[in-house]
Amino acid sequence: MDQRRAIILDFAERNGFATLQQLMEATDASESTIRRDLEVLDRTGQIRRTRGGIAYSGESLMTFEDRTTRGLSEKQRIGRAVAALVQPGESILLDGGTTTLEVARHLMSMPLQIVTNSLPIAQLLINAPQIELILIGGYLYPKTGVALGPLAVQALSTIRVQRLIMSVGGITEEGMFNSNTLLVEAEQKMLETAEEVIVAADNGKFGRNALAKVCELSRPDRLFVDSCLDPHWQETMKSAGVNLTLVE
Fold first, then answer.
1. CA–CA dist 199, 48 (Å, integer)
2. What is the pLDDT of residues 185-212, one digit of tens each?
3. Max CA-CA distance within the chain?
4. What pLDDT, in 10s, does the model give residues 149-183?
5. Local structure of 165: helix, strand or coil
6. How far, in whole angstroms, is CA 74 from its chain's centroid?
7. Cα torsion at 228, 17, 10, 104 (round to 10°)?
C-alpha cells in the first residue's frame, strides 16, 4: 500500500496532474483501489482531487540536486536568455529555484548587485569578484536552501531592485502558484520590490496547480519559457498582457 501511494505521489509530482487511468496503469491497481488511495492522500493535503484525476499540491519529494538535473538543458537555455537582458551595474533580486540558479550562472562575470534568499545561489556567487552579494536571512527551508518566514519578509520589505527574476511551481488560467505558503508569502513581498518582474519557467509548469497562489497571470512583465510551450498557453499569456519569450 505504501509503495503504491508513493508511486501515485511521484507520478503526480512529476506531471503536476494525473488521471485515474494513468494511475491505474502506473500502479497496476484497480480503479476502486486507486480511489481509496486518493481519498487518503487528499486528506493529507498532498494531492487535490479534480474532475477526472488529481493535481499535486504537496511538498516536493525530490531533493534540490535531483530537481536541478531534471530538464537541465531547457533550464540552461532559459537561464542564458534571461541573463542576456541584465545590464552591468543593475540591482537584481533572484528568487530560489533550479531555473533561477541557471540564470545566476550566466551573471557571474558581470558587475552587479544581487540580492537572493537562496543559499545555493549565494554559494555559487560568493567568489564572483564583480558581484556585490546580499543574502536575505530567515528560516532555511529544508531541501531547497531558501530563506523564508518573518525575518525574510521583513528584510525584503526594506529593499528596492531594478529586476526580480523568479520561478513558480505551477501556472494555470487562475494565476501562478507555489507549493509552500511561507514561500508564497516571501515571493509576494518580492513582487513589491522590483521595477520589472521576470518569471522563468519550463513548459512543464503550465496547467499545473499548487497549494498557494503567488499572483495573477498578468502580474509578471516578462515570461521566459522553452519553445515547447503549447500554443494554447502561448495565446493565454499574450492575452494576459505578458511579454512572452520562447527560448529555442
1. 25
2. 999 999 999 999 999 998 888 887 777 8
3. 60
4. 999 999 999 999 999 999 998 898 999 988 778 88
5. strand
6. 14
7. 40
